[in-house]
Amino acid sequence: MTDTILRTLRTHEKGIVLINGPITDQLALDFCDELDSLYDYYQYETVLLRIHSPGGQTLALDFMMERIDFWRAQGRKMHTQATMQAVSAAALLLSLGEVGHRYASPSSALLYHHTRFVTTSSQTVTARAAMEAVQQLIESDHLLMKRLCKHLLHGFGGAVAFAQAGIQRIQAIKDVMTSHPNGKKPKWIEETKQVYEQVRVMNGIKLYQQLLMRRFDEDTIMSQVQAWALMLIDDVDLPAITRGQSTCAVSQSNLSMPPALAAGLVETALHA
Predict the structure, then answer these.
(1) For the whole prediction, is pTM greater than 0.70?
(2) Which of 155-159, 211-215, 228-232, 266-270 is the least confident region?
(3) Helix (H, G, I), strand (E, B), or coil: what is residue 95?
(4) Minimal CA–CA distance to 253: which of 125, 155, 133, 122?
């Protein structure tokens, strides 16, 4: 294990795992070993995963999530925080943390996009191989999106509760913008609100999934405000491990915008 890529810390309340580099097969194996140690040997109820990563391999992410899910079934918690960047697989890892305890720093670069297929310049790809690769990418995207949506439904308590929380977050953004009439309202606000309203009526998350797919298609950095509105993070601040008792319970995070997020929204809007 390379200390600069993955290391662990132990505090009185939580174990901490720090990822500082690409998500590779080796990192996934080391991560699972460290997670087992923190949950099993040291008997922590909660582990905070701090992420600074440009992304990595989908299979490695799947392997890590299988281990996290195993411990969740035992009643353990996994909180997540993006530090400087969480990109691609790392961004999904952030959003698959415990709902209500998924943090980003005000300066975190968050980038969500679809699975990619990378080849070397000297690699020869036949038409058949290319078609098979495309099919694999489509299947991978579908499975990852299904995992994320299932996680959100479980965390928020079903489609109706999820949609209601989304509507409340959108309204919180509107309230902040109303208090600063010179600011520009983000273009995606109304579309996102309409999707949540339809999800609530239909009691199904399919339209939200389609909305996420379209946003992932853009393959651009996502603001913390939009990530919060899309239910991909819960707070923009330091997690409880460094500031005492958490104030980001699911019920509270649905009702009002975190102060740091509101300040960032106003600053961005007034200078747009």
Answers:
(1) yes
(2) 266-270
(3) helix
(4) 155
